[in-house]
Amino acid sequence: MEKLVITACLTGAEVTRDQQPNLPITPDEIAQAAYECYLAGASMVHVHARDKEGNPTQDFKYYKEIKEKIEAKCNIIFQPSTGGATWHTPEQRMQPIELKPEMATLSMGTCNFGDDVFMNTEKNIKIFAKRMYELGVKPELECFEKGMVDSAIRMVKQGILKAPLHFDFVLGVPGAMGAELRDLLYMVESIPADSTWTAAAVGRFQLPINMAAIMLGGHVRTGFEDNIYYKKGELAKSNAQLVERIAYLSREFGREVATPDEARVILGLK
Ligand code: KMH
Ligand code: ZN
Fold first, then answer.
1. Ligand 1 binding pocket, CB closer than 6 Å
2. Per the confidence metrics, is the pTM higher than 0.90?
């Protein structure tokens, strides 16, 4: 089976230090966490920036600083968020694309997100996608619902997205698709055959969905953005601890873990 690409989602926009005392927040902390995840077997980091007060920010300058600090330590793939927090404007959310990262997230539709609405109109998805392709950034298509997969397929036909696609199924968000095995299978069976895909799931669903992805030939996203626990009632010590477990389990199943350069080939990055 193809080697496993592990993405570490280090910080997210929603988790707080009160919930997870080891959450990386400053650019230095995020770069150090990225490096530890790289050593543990991650080949990509999904990054959300925080400002000096620890609040989510999409400000270009924070992403630039984080990118440079990570690149000074290792060659892990830097994948900034364009999702930001639910209250960020599309203009704010787009800023990290200007750094020309190899990949950035592109959320493929609107859904409820806890008590909030995560707004992604078709018009804005197209604006985000256009700018990404202009700058040579491959989108990772964040799909919180099956309808978002269908939108991606439609947008390939419209010439807005370019195959081969790379999907990230984010399951178990309250207000969107669940995170049972059948939910993942439905997503996997719905994408074009030449696509690559990663599976992420929220809270207690993270590990079982990650395990299923390893066995199904997909790739894995783990980290504090989606889940702060190592197991029930026990907070994880670090993002790297979660990555280490995935790398170990994958190897136990006979599936080697990709280096960043191997992941670049698998994901079709330049
Ligand atoms: N924080 C969520 C509202 C992404 O990074 O692209 C959106 C999100 C998706 O995390
Ligand atoms: Zn994110």
1. 13, 81-83, 85-86, 105, 107, 113, 118, 142
2. yes
From 107, 108, 125, 145, the mutation candidate for ligand 1 (largest count of ligand atoms within 8 A of CB) is 107
Q: Which residue has the tokens 């895909």?
A: 197
Over the chain (270 residues), the average pLDDT of each successive run of 10 is 97 98 98 99 98 98 98 98 98 98 98 98 98 98 98 98 98 98 98 98 98 98 98 98 98 98 96
Domains in the chain: ranges and CATH: 6-267 (3.20.20.70)
pLDDT digits (tens, 9 = 90+) for 137-154: 999 999 999 999 999 999
What's the CA gap between 11 and 83, in Å, rounded? Answer: 13
Which ligand is in closest contact with the Cα of 224?
A: 2
- Cα gap 89→95, rounded to integer Å: 11
Ligand 1, atom 7: closest residue by C-alpha = 83
Q: What is the DSSP string of 132-146?
A: HHHTTPEEEEEESSH
Query: Which ligand 1 atom is at minimum distance from the Cα of 106?
Result: 6
